[in-house]
């Protein structure tokens, strides 16, 4: 099984964009959007719907692509909400039986 380090890598770059916004960065454009946090929350909603449709219609390649979009936008939204992904992982770990 592939390890999950790519999620950590993407999370780190999102932190970096939040601390040092840069022109030409998509993440920066979302985090500094005039709509504020609503922009990233809208993206999570859109990508969730696209993922659901792809999975429901059993289109494997599209399901993978939409799942990646959803994970990415979810991480951006966590940052926008001031939530540390480490707290989310701790919460999951605490639920292990
Ligand atoms: N994983 C992603 C990723 N997935 C999707 N996207 C971008 O998300 C945007 C959303 O596209 P859509 O078609 O959903 O919508 P749109 O209408 O074009 O854009 P919106 O106005 O709705 O946001 C596209 O511009 C994609 O390029 C991503 N942009 C960045 N990343 C990661 O974030 C890192 C930092 O990116 P920058 O901040 O751009 O340097 C990259 O190295 C990647 O690892």
TrEMBL record:
EC number(s)? 3.6.1.31
Write out the annotated subcellular location. Cytoplasm
Q: What class of enzyme is it?
A: hydrolase
Keyword annotations for this protein, in alphabetical order, are: Amino-acid biosynthesis, ATP-binding, Cytoplasm, Histidine biosynthesis, Hydrolase, Nucleotide-binding
**Pathway info:** Amino-acid biosynthesis; L-histidine biosynthesis; L-histidine from 5-phospho-alpha-D-ribose 1-diphosphate: step 2/9
Could you tell me which SUPFAM superfamilies the record lists for this protein?
A: all-alpha NTP pyrophosphatases
The reaction(s) this protein catalyses: 1-(5-phospho-beta-D-ribosyl)-ATP + H2O = 1-(5-phospho-beta-D-ribosyl)-5'-AMP + diphosphate + H(+)
UniProt cross-references to CDD domains, sorted A to Z: NTP-PPase_HisIE_like
Q: Which InterPro entries match?
A: HisE (IPR008179), PRib-ATP_PPHydrolase-like (IPR021130)
Gene Ontology terms describing biological process: L-histidine biosynthetic process
A single GO CC term, please?
A: cytoplasm
Q: Which family does it belong to?
A: Belongs to the PRA-PH family.
| Matching NCBIfam families | histidine_hisI (TIGR03188)
What PANTHER family does this protein map onto?
HISTIDINE BIOSYNTHESIS BIFUNCTIONAL PROTEIN, HISTIDINE BIOSYNTHESIS BIFUNCTIONAL PROTEIN HIS7
Q: Indicate what this protein is called per its UniProt record.
A: Phosphoribosyl-ATP pyrophosphatase
């Amino acid at each position: 099984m592939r390890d999950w380090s790519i999620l950590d890598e993407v999370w780190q770059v999102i932190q970096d964009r939040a601390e040092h916004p840069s022109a030409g960065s998509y993440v920066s454009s979302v985090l500094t959007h005039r709509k504020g946090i609503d922009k990233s929350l809208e993206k999570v909603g859109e990508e969730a719907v696209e993922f659901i449709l792809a999975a429901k219609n059993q289109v494997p390649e599209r399901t993978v692509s939409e799942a990646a979009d959803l994970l990415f936008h979810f991480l951006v939204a966590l940052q926008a909400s001031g939530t540390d992904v480490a707290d989310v992982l701790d919460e999951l770990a605490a639920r292990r039986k």
